[in-house]
Design goal:
CATH topology of one domain: Rossmann fold
Structural class: alpha/beta
Order of helices and strands: HEHEEEEHHEHEHEH
Helix content: 25-40%
Strand order of the largest sheet: 2-1-6-7-8
Number of helices: 7
CATH class of one domain: Alpha Beta
Distance between the termini: 21 Å
Strand content: 15-25%
Radius of gyration: 16 Å
CATH architecture of one domain: 3-Layer(aba) Sandwich
Number of strands: 8
Shape: globular
């Protein structure tokens, strides 16, 4: 359904689909296949609130990009040292995933391209925002965010922050991403690597 909503980007040489690992990669794979577009991964790590790790207080990406959710931080009175501790731990995992997913493949060139960023769902939007900010620094031509499900308030905010925001559903009573899936079992690193190998295509390939 998400791929169908993004159909106008099909077979365009400038289109590139990037999945946020791990859960976003299976969704991105299907979108890329439908659009006949190249697929890659964009590694971002959520900064979970201490002892409430499912709640995001921010996120980090490569090149030292960090985005913080000030509303969550101020409401829960999270000190700077706690944020730095979580960020340092997640930086290690970010670097591990970059090595595991890419192996000897370099990151695809994004400058000037239309990048479709895909995740399996968007709650607070912290992870997606840091990915968008990192891509802006890499001088992408156009940023499109696509997801099957997103919290209504977050969706309205993100529509003002990116060139285009596409979601299959934006329920008012969101509760959590997993609620909107029949199967929300965890995606493994191996599955991500396999999908990236299947979805790997030369830059600018127009499909069969």
């Amino acid at each position: 359904m998400l791929g169908g909503m993004l159909a106008r980007y099909a077979r365009l040489p400038e289109t590139l689909v990037l999945g946020l690992p791990r859960g976003g990669v299976p969704v991105a794979f299907e979108v890329a296949r439908l659009l006949h577009a190249p697929l890659d991964v964009f590694v971002v790590r959520k900064l979970g609130v201490p002892y409430r790790e499912e709640l995001a207080m921010g996120a980090i990406a490569r090149n030292g990009v960090r985005v913080l959710n000030q509303r969550v931080i101020e409401t829960l009175r999270i000190p700077d040292w706690a944020i730095d501790t979580v960020a340092a731990r997640e930086q290690i995992e970010l670097e591990r995933r970059e090595r595991a997913y890419r192996a000897d493949r370099p990151a695809r060139e994004v400058e000037g391209r239309t990048v479709i960023l895909v995740d399996d769902g968007i709650a607070t939007g912290s992870t997606m925002r840091v990915a968008v900010e990192a891509l802006r620094k890499l001088k992408v031509g156009r940023v499109v965010v696509g997801t099957p499900t997103a919290a209504l308030d977050t969706a309205e905010e993100m529509r003002r922050e990116v060139d285009e925001f596409v979601a299959v559903m934006t329920p008012r009573d969101f509760a959590g991403v997993g609620l909107w899936y029949e199967d929300f079992s965890q995606t493994t690193d191996q599955e991500v690597c396999e999908l990236l190998k299947k979805g790997g295509r030369p830059l600018g390939a127009a499909g069969p």
